[in-house]
Design brief:
single chain, 256 residues, mainly beta, Immunoglobulin-like, five-stranded mixed sheet, five-stranded antiparallel sheet, 0% helix, rod-shaped
Length: 256
């Protein structure tokens, strides 16, 4: 994935088929992305220059094929087939190519061969949240969200406190491709959850994360842990901080 655009496989794959078996040449597998369209060009050739009929079929109804004509009288000639998978369908389908130049001595000469069309999954956005606390105004945080999959086109951020109580939306500004920043004022006595939603190059995604407020005490030892209990901060002595200071511990799953 580059520059926030869907990656492309080769748009024109050249495949030679013929009514004479010695002229058939196809790859084992052709690849394309889900929700995309791929045009494959077949070169038709017939050694004895008879009328050549052909067909291209898929073994899956989820893969639509658009074929030009079905019979030619002059070869070699190029013929295009358009492959269009159903929305969000991403599997493989066996494609059968059939060519025939009619009967010779009472026997129909057919040339059948197959290849696999592999419709590949396009990664969905994968948002990762980081928080930065203002050292002077401890209720204010900077939120930075990065899409590590590099496929997100946008981002909406919503914050909830103490489980499910809606607090509001955060205005997130695009910093660069796949990165957004915003600011928010928090109540330092509450726990928070974050909902990140966005559209990808294909489909959309929603990611949830949590954070817990803790209090670092100047007068003695203290202990704090993340909302899920997977990350713990322990102070075993006094004066680790110059004064009592609230801070936020993110869900341990946010750590790489």
């Amino acid at each position: 994935v580059n520059e926030n655009t869907k990656p492309k496989f080769t748009q024109l794959a050249y495949i030679s088929i013929s009514g004479d078996s010695v002229k058939t040449s196809v790859p084992d597998t052709v690849k394309m992305w889900e929700n995309d369209t791929l045009v494959v060009t077949f070169t038709l050739d017939d050694l004895d220059d008879d009328t050549l009929t052909y067909s291209v079929t898929a073994d899956s109804s989820e893969l639509k094929l658009i074929v030009e004509d079905f019979s030619v009288t002059v070869t070699p000639i190029e013929m295009q087939v358009t492959f269009i998978p159903q929305q969000f369908w991403r599997k493989t389908s066996k494609i059968k190519l059939s060519a025939s130049d009619g009967q010779v001595n009472g026997i129909t000469r057919n040339n059948d061969t197959t290849f696999v069309m592999n419709v590949k999954h396009v990664p969905r956005p994968h948002y990762r949240l980081s928080l930065g606390q203002n050292p002077s105004f401890t209720r204010y945080y900077e939120l930075m969200v990065t899409d590590t999959a590099k496929t997100a086109k946008n981002l909406d951020m919503y914050i909830y406190r103490d489980g499910s109580l809606p607090v509001g939306a955060v205005k997130m500004k695009a910093l660069e491709l796949n990165t957004w920043v915003g600011n928010f004022e928090f109540d330092t006595t509450a726990d928070y959850s974050f909902e990140m939603k966005g559209d990808g190059l294909v489909g959309d995604t929603t990611v949830y994360d949590t954070a817990t407020h803790a209090l670092a005490r100047a007068s003695g030892p203290w202990r704090a842990e993340s909302y899920d209990g997977g990350f713990t901060v322990i102070s075993t002595a006094a004066n680790v901080v110059p004064f009592d200071k609230p801070f936020m511990i993110v869900d341990s799953l946010l750590f790489p």
